[in-house]
Amino acid sequence: MNPDRKKLIDRIAASMDRMRRLGRARMRDDLAGFDMTMPQVRTLYFLSRGPQRMKDISDHLMRGMPSATSMIDRLVRKGYVERVPDPSDRRVVLCQITEPGREMLDRFSRMGAVGFEAISESLTDDELDTIAPALDILVDAMARQTSSESDECCKDKREGT
Questions:
Q1: In angstroms, rounded to a whole number, what is the distance separating the alpha carbons of residues 70 and 61?
Q2: Cβ contact 99:44 at 8 Å
Q3: 19 found inside a domain
Q4: pLDDT tens per residue across all 161 residues of the chain
Q5: Helices 3-32 + 38-47 axis angle, to 10
Q6: Contact 68, 40 (CB under 8 A)
Q7: CA 36 from chain center: how many Å?
Q8: Close Cβ partners of 94 (under 8 Å, ≥ 6 residues apart)
Q9: Is the dihedral of CA 34, 81, 20, 157 positive or negative?
Q10: What angle do helix axes 38-47 and 54-61 make, rounded to 10 degrees?
Q11: Are 79 and 100 in contact (CB under 8 A)?
Q12: H or E element that contains 18
């Protein structure tokens, strides 16, 4: 590999890693005001797609069943999740997000949008003109390297879809 190309790739990787760490730190700060953890928020987002079995929640979070069950118990106590019978199999219990859970996600999403708006406002028009197409190129390259199933999660985030 061309040494200059390697330097650029390393620089991009380092910037993406730093951006991820800064984003996580900001989310932790934002979540502190909500008495929520990131796994709890991820669980609410997952449940916003529709009712789920505990096994599916556990798999989605990449956690053991006891850990996932404990988290669901906490979300139930907070009123953000409820357990309901599966209409197709009475032996199965599904977890679904409640209206207060959806409201929590909406507040959290709005907070994220406000934060991104503040970051965007700190950039010049020229910087935005440079960043937008560069990110499009990077996202398209990532999509080509990612399974179509994984890419499904991002379709609604793309412009025009």
A1: 13
A2: no
A3: yes
A4: 899 999 999 999 999 999 999 988 888 888 887 888 889 999 999 999 999 999 999 999 999 999 999 999 999 999 999 999 999 998 899 999 999 999 999 998 888 888 889 899 999 999 999 999 999 999 999 899 887 545 455 554 444 43
A5: 90
A6: no
A7: 14
A8: 51, 52, 53, 83, 84, 85, 86
A9: negative
A10: 130
A11: yes
A12: helix 3-32
Q: How many domains does the chain have?
A: 1
Strand partners, 52: 95
Residue 38 corresponds to which tokens in the numbers above? 């990131």
Length of the chain: 161
46 lies in a domain?
Answer: no
Task: Report if residue 21 sits inside a domain.
Answer: yes
Please state, in angstroms and rounded to a whole number, the distance separating the CA atoms of residues 122 and 52. Answer: 40
Q: For 33-92, where are the alpha helices, taking DSSP H only?
A: 38-47, 54-61, 65-78
Q: What predicted TM-score, i.e. pTM, was given to this entire model?
A: 0.71
Q: Is the dihedral of CA 148, 152, 157, 161 positive or negative?
A: positive
What phi and psi, each to the nearest 5 degrees, are found at residue 124? Answer: -80, 165
Domain of residue 1: give its range: 1-33
> Per the domain annotation, does 144 fall within a domain?
no
Show the tokens assigned to 137: 């190129």
